[in-house]
Amino acid sequence: MITPAEAITLQEQLRAQVITTDVLPHPIRTIAGTDVEYDKSTNLIAGSVVVMDYNTLAVLAVASHCMEVTFPYIPGLFSFREMPPLLEAYRQLQVEPDLIICDGQGLAHQRRFGLACHFGVTLDKPVIGCGKTRLCGEYENLGETRGSVAPLIAEDDQALIGNALRTRDGINPVFVSTGHKVSLATATDIVLKIATQYRLPETTRLADHYARLALLAYKSGSKEPPAGI
DNA sequence: GCGACAG
DNA sequence: ATCTTGTCGC
Ligand SMILES: [Mg+2]
């Protein structure tokens, strides 16, 4: 299908569409989380989107989609691997969220167009990028307590591309960046608010859980291979 | 050429 | 992402 070289050209073309200021509902009522799980033995993957109440974090809707991977994992081209199942799951969603938090970077990317940007521009919805580890950029002097923030600066042009955010005292930070229609400051506030009990936002944790379930359900209710010979 | 490198 | 129980530290 699409080649890595073509994917890079597409990113450089779409990056101009990213909006880095707040263009989202007042007040925020619902928030969605997304994640993709992989099956070690087959090339199946499952993407899930879970919508939660912004204040109570009650689950309002969930949609998942299983399919075969269509693109290899290449740092910088991650969205071409994980977006397919997420777009289909999102399409099936019965409740439209006010904003979305993706499990990966937004602007904190070599070409300033990570998964959160690609997903946001594609859906034209507010999206926040929240990665567990760093893809690019450097930061220093991050405090040890929850709520501590340190700017993530791009190595090449010294641009502010995101924030390292400590969501739990003394535990590794998460990396927050604008995906689309959410400023870095707002994105950082929201991730801290949604990461109530663990390092990761509850949205990401729940999406991860539902994607796992979807993969297991799909495999059990599918063809022959496993169990009885 | 070598090391880094979202999930 | 995935392989995976116990173990070290706060
Ligand atoms: Mg993930």
Automatic annotation (TrEMBL):
Its EC number is 3.1.21.7. The keyword Phosphoprotein does not apply. It is found in: Cytoplasm. One of its GO terms (molecular function) is magnesium ion binding. It catalyses: Endonucleolytic cleavage at apurinic or apyrimidinic sites to products with a 5'-phosphate. It is an enzyme of class 3 (hydrolase). The record marks Y73 as: Interaction with target DNA. Mg(2+) binds at D35, D103. GO terms for cellular component: cytoplasm. Its cofactor is Mg(2+). Belongs to the endonuclease V family. Keywords: Cytoplasm, DNA damage, DNA repair, Endonuclease, Hydrolase, Magnesium, Metal-binding, Nuclease. Coiled coil: none annotated. It comes from the Bacteria. DNA repair enzyme involved in the repair of deaminated bases. Selectively cleaves double-stranded DNA at the second phosphodiester bond 3' to a deoxyinosine leaving behind the intact lesion on the nicked DNA. This is Endonuclease V.
